[in-house]
Amino acid sequence: MKRRIGTVIILLSFGLSGCGPSVPISTEVKQEVEERDTMNINVNGQVASIQLEENATTKALVAEAPFTIQMDDLHRNEKYHYFDKSFPAQPQPIQTIEAGDVLLYQNNCLVIFYQAAEPVVPYTRIGKISRFQDIRASFGNASVSVQWYEGEGGE
Q1: Is 17 helix (H, G, I), strand (E, B) or coil?
Q2: Whole-prediction pTM value?
Q3: DSSP letter string, 21-36
Q4: Which of 71, 82, 68, 79 is nearest to 154 (CA)?
Q5: Which phi-psi region, left, alpha or beta, contains residue 58 (left: φ > 0; alpha: ψ -120 to 50)?
């Protein structure tokens, strides 16, 4: 009987040893995130970079750059702009929305959240503004003109 218990313990320890991470996490995933494409915005003279998601929506939006749009305020936490055209979209329920999130609502409404919010509708993720705190004050509660472009310059 003792021998069976000992055998069972040994077998369980072998089986459970495979449950933890036995291989170091690859740095390839980290590099992929760091090398993700970026786009720049200029809001009232304040420039920020957006780390872009890799999806068809983002590619279609970047293809439109450079462009300048008027973004109106909604709920004192987001700026939005409805395009005259549709973009490919795959809206998903979002658990949290943070300041600096750039999203597409439905298939033609670009949204920048400048305050955290409780998501109530699905969005397609476009990206996240890096170091958003540096430009947060540029958004205010009124409409703003936002210049979108790739690279160093602007339109």
Answers
A1: helix
A2: 0.75
A3: --SPPPHHHHHHHHT-
A4: 68
A5: alpha
Question: Quick one: CA torsion of 75, 79, 85, 87, rounded to 10 degrees?
Answer: -100
Report CA 26 to chain centroid distance, whole Å: 22
Cα–Cα distances in Å, from 144 out to 3, 43, 118?
Answer: 76, 7, 23
Q: Which two tokens stand for residue 120?
A: 């109530």
Predicted pLDDT of residue 152: 58
pLDDT, tens only, 95-107: 999 999 999 999 9
Start-to-end Cα distance in the chain: 81
For residue 86, what are the CA distances in angstroms to 53, 93, 114?
18, 20, 24
Residues of the chain with pLDDT under 70: 1-36, 152-155
User: Any idea how long the chain is?
Assistant: 155
